[in-house]
Amino acid sequence: MASISLLRSVIHLVAVTSFALGSYVIDDTNGLGRRFDGIGGLSGGGATSRLLVSYTDPYRRQILDYLFTPNFGASLHILKVEIGGDAQSTDGTEPSHMHSADDENYQRGYEWWLMKEAKARNPNIKLYGLPWGWPGWVGNFTSSPYTDIQQSVNYVLKWLQGAKQVHNLTIDYIGIWNERTYSIPYIKLLRKTLDSSGFRDTQIVASDGKFEISYDVLRDAELASAVSILGFHYPGTYVTKYTLETGKMLWSSEDYSTFNDAVGTGCWARILNQNYVNGNMTSTISWNLIASYYEALPFDRDGLMTAVQPWSGYYVVEGPIWISAHTTQFTLPGWKYYKHGSGAGHFDQGGSYVSLTDGKNLTIVIETMTHDHSKCIRPSLPPYDVKAQTASFILKGQFASIKSLNVFYSKPGFGGANSTYFVKKDPIQVVGGQFQLNLEPDEIYTLTTSPLGKKGSYDAPPPPAPFPVPYYDDFDVYPLYSEAAYFADQSGCFEIRDSGNTTRGNVMQQVATSYPVNWCTDAHTPISYVGNHLWHNVSFSVDANISSPAGGVMVAARLQKGGCGLVSTEGIFLWLFANGSYALSTDILRYNVLKSGSTPVEANKWFTVHFEVLDSTTLTIKSSINDKPLFSYAAKEQLSTKGFVAIGTVDYGPSQFDKFTIFSAF
Prior knowledge:
Radius of gyration: 27 Å
Low-confidence stretches: 1-18
Oligomer: single chain
Distance between the termini: 68 Å
Strand order of the largest sheet: 2-3-4-5-6-7-8-9
Helix content: 10-25%
Strand content: 25-35%
Largest sheet: 8 strands, parallel, barrel
Number of helices: 10
Shape: globular
């Protein structure tokens, strides 16, 4: 029995007799375990940081600090980004650096900007790129990027070269094709091409999906040599015995994907520990980095923090930021895990612990999560049976003589209780290499010799506010090739381009040239959302210029679904064709046409379309072209009741838009 003075120093001390007592040795005498490779976040898969780039300082700077600045917030070690492919990849499309084979541009999108911001805060952060979709030409307009593997390898190589030559970014890791079929010849050719093109240090992660590649790595020595890291998605904290037999570095290269409330926070705490304890995985990357895409799009708030209102500056620092800090602020990639049974394992009464060291400092991370995190851990696991317990730790080896450990503590607020995150407690005294810690269910501790650890903070951001109406954008204030604020492309790709007309200035132009090698079901109609998913009644207009006699444009309201569900969304769509006709439909596929007729619209001539949906006693849909009435439709059938506003094109032609105006919306 420890002395009374020692017992009083133990955090949350209660009588030892009320807890089951377990003893756990932290010992490096017989060597250490696997190398720790870091904790990361994923921007993309897809368009998950779309609204972040539209925030203004100081709020954008503050958000980035919470994500990337060392010893402040999440202090992430890895930033993984989507290599945009003009394809829908979960919550939107991200632009490709090569819309066509003869097109090459490295100013598009926001991933370059995000990587540079991360590097500015932490020069040692690791960067990781992965394709979800591919422009159609890369796959020779088939459903696979492997019809011409040299062409696909060159496409990825161009992205790496653009990162280095244009943005001075070194990409540390490159993936294959997110959660889709991998090609062994492609992987081998990619490795050879990287080596011969000055990217020998860029490591290949394969295959960002399931475990099947483990069998191929065991059978194929050349493939094994090409692949540095086996990366798996949502492994449920376990890997297969064949995976372990490869001897490769093992990562959970996409994980979490859970609403960032208390339950999701607890989930993140569990997998950060148990991916190593159960599966020997030495890196875990969250999908997603930050929930910065419109509410009502798929997987709302599945990020480490939330930032969905760039117009107000409002954002929320969620619990997963501070759970990340429990590991990231007291370790770095290159540290070593302790071996299982001598520094890593499960507690007798539930929960887990891991220990890490750089040879100078010791960090122990403890979690005792109980809740069912089936949305996060796949395949789903039942609730963990974790009981109150006393853990008795015995330090052996190089840290046997330390006198104290600094302590940081968190407890997610399940069931409406208040949450406690990343609170610095009084140090634990270590006597003769031993100390005890009383553990309750649903707690997270970091015990460390490191003097670091800071719960960074800023003054509260502005309060939330609805999307600003009336709203106007003539697209003249943006750099060329960027995306207009608040527009969220859901199919195709809309960029700021020079109109070629000195009186009109910049315009927003649809620039994807063909249907992509898609990742999920992608609408054949390019479309970009804006506004609020709760809007019932709207009145808006936009100037448009159809690029070809066979083309057309579209305006829409009350769009209910986006992301991979876009193709089945309900809404109210007005299609304007350059052949002088129009159609009013309730779906993006134009299966259900409510009304049709003729218009004065022509190709290569600017016109203004006004669209209004008003529901008072009767739902009335109206439109005009150049201030002349086109139609008024009183709906007798039940139509979509609420949703986003959108503009789009009939085909993949380069039609243009200007002077977008929302007059009213509610």
